[in-house]
Structure formats: C-alpha cells, structure tokens
C-alpha cells in the first residue's frame, strides 16, 4: 500500500488487462512514440485530480444540503446521478457516512471493484492483495500505515465492494467550515477520504 506519507511497498499482481496495458506502454515507449513521464502525469491527473473531483462535489453537496444528504443515504445511485455522475463501474452506489465514533473503510476483496464515475482511476494499492486481505482482517493496522490513527473507541466498518454494488465514504465535515460554499468545501475532500484511508483535510489546510 502507499499513500502521501506511506513508504511501505508491496508487489502487486497485475490482472490480464493491466498486464496488456503495461506491455503496450512499454512497447510504445521503446519505439519512442510516447514519453513514460507524460503517461505518468496523465494517469496521476485522472487518478488524483479530475476523477475524484466528482466525488468531492457529491460530498460537499451532502455537507451543505440536509435533503441531499438524506437522499444520498436512501438512494446513493439516484442522488449521485442527479449531479451527472454515472457510468462505468458506478451504476449501483451506496454512501456510508463517517460520524462521531464511526469510521468507514472500503475494499474489494475479490478483485478491484471501484466507482470510477465518482473517484476516477483506482490507486494501485487498492488493487494489491495485501490491502484487499488486511483491510478486512486488520483495518485499524492498515489505517495506521496510511497515517490515520483513530481513537481506540472508534468503530471501524469495512465495506466489501462487488460487481453489483460500490461504496462512497462521506467523511465528516471539518470544523471551522461554517458558511463555506460547495466549491470551497470540495477542496477539502480527497480520494483517500472517500475510500476511508484518510480524513477530509482540515480547514486551515485549504
């Protein structure tokens, strides 16, 4: 697994599609047709910036509009679709809300089911066997490796994504953000906070 402050690496198994993409990338790079650095920059943009902004807007809307938050709890698929975010691996969604004493973590133990429409490309660590197994067996330890130390009395709920249902974690709204508009609030929401391996950024970090 890896994160912004996480330096412990694992050997990741590539599924057939990933292996083919990697082989094609290598071939094109060797022929001088693409710049590996440019590919890395594009992937980073879609993995961490463009894609997760959709989910961040969903969270910001839930933070500011009680009616939307209630809708998101009842029918996340419809609520998210109302903002225009639908498509590949995001057809059936459930939103789980962090709160006082409760923290949610999402994993896919069988493969790498992931809500692309709201979170963009899945991070490499999400697909790694160590994360997929340990997130269920030792979620507190996994979160600690990401730099997230939760109080001992916090209940950690682990949600296993499937081909039929994917999850979006709604992190707690940070203190000191009263009166902020949705655009500003969305800047506090990261991809990892919507998976559950991090909290939303604090107001002073915006």
Topology:
Blueprint: H1 16-30, H2 36-64, H3 66-74, H4 76-81, E1 93-97, E2 102-107, H5 116-119, H6 124-127, H7 129-137, H8 139-145, E3 155-160, E4 166-170, H9 182-186, H10 191-195
Parallel strand pairs: 1-4, 2-3
Helix pairs in contact: 2-3, 7-8
Order of helices and strands: HHHHEEHHHHEEHH
Main sheet record: 2 strands, parallel
Structural class: mainly alpha
- Going by CATH, the homologous superfamily of the largest domain would be Nitrile hydratase alpha /Thiocyanate hydrolase gamma
Strand order of the largest sheet: 1-4
- For this structure, the CATH topology of the largest domain is Nitrile Hydratase, Chain A
The average pLDDT is: 85
How would you sum up this structure, described in words?
The protein has 206 residues and is mainly alpha-helical. The protein has 2 domains: 10-48, no CATH class; 51-205, Nitrile hydratase alpha /Thiocyanate hydrolase gamma (Nitrile Hydratase, Chain A). 45% of the residues lie in helices and 11% in strands. The chain contains 10 helices and 4 strands. The chain has helices at residues 16-30, 36-64, 66-74, 76-81, 116-119, 124-127, 129-137, 139-145, 182-186, 191-195; strands at 93-97, 102-107, 155-160, 166-170. The strands form 2 sheets. The chain has a two-stranded parallel ribbon. Strands 2-3 form a two-stranded parallel ribbon. The chain is globular, with a radius of gyration of 17 Å. Residues 1-12 have low confidence and may be disordered.
